[in-house]
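Re: that chain you flagged

S.,

Sorry for the slow reply, it's been a week of failed gels. I finally had a moment to sit down with the sequence you sent. For the record, here it is as I used it:
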Amino acid sequence: MSKRIVYQMLPRLWGRGHFADIDGKFLAYLRSLGVDYLYLTGIPRHASAKPFVKGDPGCPYSICDYYDTNPYLAQEPERRMEEFSLMLRRIHRAGLKLLIDFVPNHVSCDYADAHGGIPVFGHYDYDWSDTRKINYDHPETLSRMAEVLKFWAAKGVDGFRCDMVELVGPDRCGAMISSARAAFPSLLFVAEVYGREGYHSFTEAGFDLLYDKSGIYDILRGIFFHFCGTSAITRNWQELGGLQERMLNFLENHDEQRLCSSAYAGNPKKTMALAAVTALFNRASLMLYAGGELGENASEAADGRTSIFNWVHPASLRKLHKYLHGGTLAKGDTAVLARWQSLLELASSPLCREGENWDLNYCNAASPGFDPERHFAFLRFNQERCMLIFCNFSDKPASVRLHVPVRAEGDYPLTADAWDFAVLEI
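Prediction finished late last night. Pasting the structure tokens below so you have them in one place:
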């Protein structure tokens, strides 16, 4: 399976927060980054302006009508579905595909639609007090939920990021996916899944990609905070085996702390080694969170997260919107963006989308300058190219001489700054 690159964004945080702001300039920018899928969070209509709602506009995962979209996303609210369709047409015209959320576990407390509704229980999971759990014991629930998928697919949506699928189960998810794919065979399904023990069952259910939150995300965060060493990357790779290509890697998303927030790295200069492993190691797909390529730090938030409950205005998105529409970026922002553009150029190349991968830590434990718990090295190669990547997860610059036993056998010198990476074509 080839690597896919996904760009996640809450449209209400971009420009004026309207579908119309997903314009040609923004889409051309995504294409320049090598993006394949634009994942827009918060498209199905969610509860808002009700006593039970969390935050100002409300949570995008408290769906009040699966067959509608949010009025606030449209310049003319009464024409919101038409404006959504026009946006989707622009996305496809730009050569991109669209992912939206499918929330199969719960709906809002006031859910209602014109298609028979969704059977629910009188309780909710965790602290999601603005929701009610869907009742899959009802004989019509599976078919009604499958119809939701087909409704959006008929409008041209290319796939779905499926929320908290472990609370629904692989069998039920598989039935809905099978029904939708019978009518729309090319749909992409992404599972938000956390327990590694369920990876096989959810791929068998029909999911194309699975969040590797409990794998590479947690490992890289553990390396950053010195809870584990880089040998954990190797273990994760080995344990996943053939599932590696079904993983969706990310460093941040709407649930997690922003990478450059004070609660995490705090500085874009301390993120590039993390980014290199996430984007370049193996053929796992990659998801970027809007503004991360400019070092968004969620300075408006106390917990390091860009809020999904309130109206917020992330600084990086304001700067990026201005830049794409004729403005300029500060020198520091330009440098951060340039590093990400360079990294994504590699990630989107045939070498990294489809080429072979070789973990080199096992044969470099005794190599000069190499620290097997703070350094990580790997090889990407195909018939045309061979690329050696060295990642330095140390607070000090590193100079190493790496041994390569395959493809381009030999010993190669590389140098990388603290928390950075280096690439050598060999």
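What I noticed first: The chain is about 30% helix and 20% strand.

Talk soon,
D.
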